[in-house]
Amino acid sequence: MEQKKKRRLVWWLVTIIILLFAIVIGGGLYLLRFALQPYGKLGKKEASSMEWAFKNYPFLEPWVDSLNQVGALRDTFINNPEGLRMHALFIEAAEPTKKTAVIVHGYTDEAIRMLPIGYLYNKDLGYNVLLPDLHYHGKSDGEAIQMGWKDRLDVMQWMHVANELFGDSTQMAVHGISMGGATTMMVSGMEQPYFTKCFVEDCGYISVWDQFSYQLNRDFHLPNFPLLYTASALCELKYGWNFKEASSLKQVEKSQLPMFFIHGAEDSYVPTWNVYPLYEAKSEPKEIWVVPGAQHADSYRNNKEEYTRRVGEFVGKYIN
Fold first, then answer.
1. Lowest mean pLDDT among 4-13, 113-122, 210-219
2. Is residue 10 part of a domain?
3. pLDDT at 177
């Protein structure tokens, strides 16, 4: 009789442990899909993205029309080392120049939605520009968002492509917003080709871990353990990287080239406090602008003239 009770107790304990394990794994998988595969299949239609751009930035429409009339807004494709077909838009400057900008979009956005920053560099500053679609965005392949970490390798490849497209021996700035800002910082910690001159990051996060932790706590009122740890481990199994290694901060610590940090003072999506440890970690030369009243990724839209002036002055110090 005593043996039967013990066996029953062991059976119930094992069952409970298995159920808890299944719940944690299931929750981790849900969190991973929620974060890296939002809306099932990502990829906005080109027409609706262009409509969004024209509505929010009315000055873009005549500029884009003028580019299309002469075939100056063009597509290009590459295969990355994983065999994925990746897409970018590119625009040559109106006058021949070596000045070039690679412009990186944010989470669930695409190249078309970075045309306002393309306007800044191409129309206002006279640069060649290239705007890539990152993994799983726009016209690029990929089974999930990579939060900038794998994207840093693709952006580096695109930098070399841009250098070839625009005549070799370019002078290049990399400018990213939101996840694109984090991607830019992640790129900055890699060994740079001779033509890279400076970086501009706008409202990027410290690390994927910190950003997901903030959103998990804010939106779901849940602690990091066990779901965030589980999702990070599952990400490593499925995609080959984990949330903690995907760190803008660690990459910025290694960066030697000039960087301009921009962040909205009222940003609640990637909280403004992110920018301060990033700025502190970066060696000179560096500059920072915390934009009064600006929310997430709104610094350019709300302060077009000042944003253009400040960016132009910064990159102008390092690109002739």
1. 4-13
2. no
3. 98
Q: Interior CA angle at 134 toward 199 and 73, to 5°?
A: 80
Q: What is the pTM of this model?
A: 0.95
Mean of pLDDT over the chain: 94
Q: How far apart are CA 64 and CA 140, in angstroms?
A: 22
pLDDT at 294: 98
Q: What is the CATH number of the domain that holds 298?
A: 3.40.50.1820
Whether 229 maps to a domain, the answer reads: no
Residue 7 — pLDDT band, cuts 50, 70, 90?
confident
Which DSSP state fits 193?
P
Query: Which helix (H) or strand (E) element contains residue 102?
Result: strand 99-104
CB distance 300 to 116 below 8 Å: yes
Is there a domain that residue 2 lies in? Answer: no
The total number of structural domains in the chain stands at 1
The helix (run of H) or strand (run of E) holding residue 288 is strand 286-291
Range of the domain at 148: 37-207+246-316
Q: At what angle do helices 151-165 and 179-188 cross, to 10 degrees?
A: 80
